[in-house]
Write a structure and sequence with these properties.
This protein is of the alpha+beta class. 29% of the residues lie in helices and 31% in strands. β1 and β2 form a beta hairpin.
Length: 179
């Protein structure tokens, strides 16, 4: 269910984006694994990750001897111990593959953000950490970004992802964010 739709941008400009449901986003993520050339970097940001076909393809392409592609999976901080048993197991398996780097990202304490917005937060939650919540794949100038988690459950959700071609500046900005 992919369609090219003009997407208005301020100042009268427009770009064409590909709109994807979760199944389309998952298929596009695998397609980007296939086209990643030697020397490229494939980055996936995941809030949750447990889809077997994505894990298996990441492992297969990262293990491919005919090209050197580095794969990075950035997941939220509790991913290596679960929110789900499948996610923890998938991340642990991926971390054993030489060209795959799994990073459990953990942000800063949430308390100061609530304080800055003059909102109350119970004392026991003041030091709770914010976490990596985005869902994105990037290879070179191609970016998939949206709401679909990289999970089997996402296939039944109402999700929306887009594929965009980044400008050189956009690719550089995303790369700085990835680092």
């Amino acid at each position: 269910d992919c369609a090219f739709k003009p997407c208005p941008i301020p100042f009268g400009e427009s770009v064409n984006l590909v709109r994807l449901n979760a199944a389309g986003a998952h298929a596009a993520a695998i397609a980007l694994m296939e086209v990643a050339a030697s020397g490229m970097h494939y980055t996936m940001l995941a809030f949750t990750f447990d889809r077997p076909t994505l894990k298996e393809n990441l492992m297969r392409f990262a293990s491919s001897a005919d090209r050197e592609v580095t794969f990075t999976l950035v997941v939220h901080g509790s991913s290596l111990t679960g929110p789900t048993r499948q996610m923890a197991q998938a991340c642990q398996e991926l971390a054993t593959v030489p060209n795959i780097k799994v990073i459990a990202a953990q942000g800063s304490a949430i308390g100061p953000y609530y304080l800055a917005d003059s909102r109350w937060l119970s004392p026991e939650k003041q030091n709770n950490r914010v976490y990596q919540h985005s869902k994105m794949v990037r290879v070179g100038y191609l970016l998939i970004s949206g709401s679909a988690n990289w999970t089997t459950a996402a296939l039944s959700n109402w999700e929306l992802d887009t594929v965009a071609w980044l400008t050189e500046t956009g690719a550089r900005n995303i790369q700085e964010y990835e680092n």
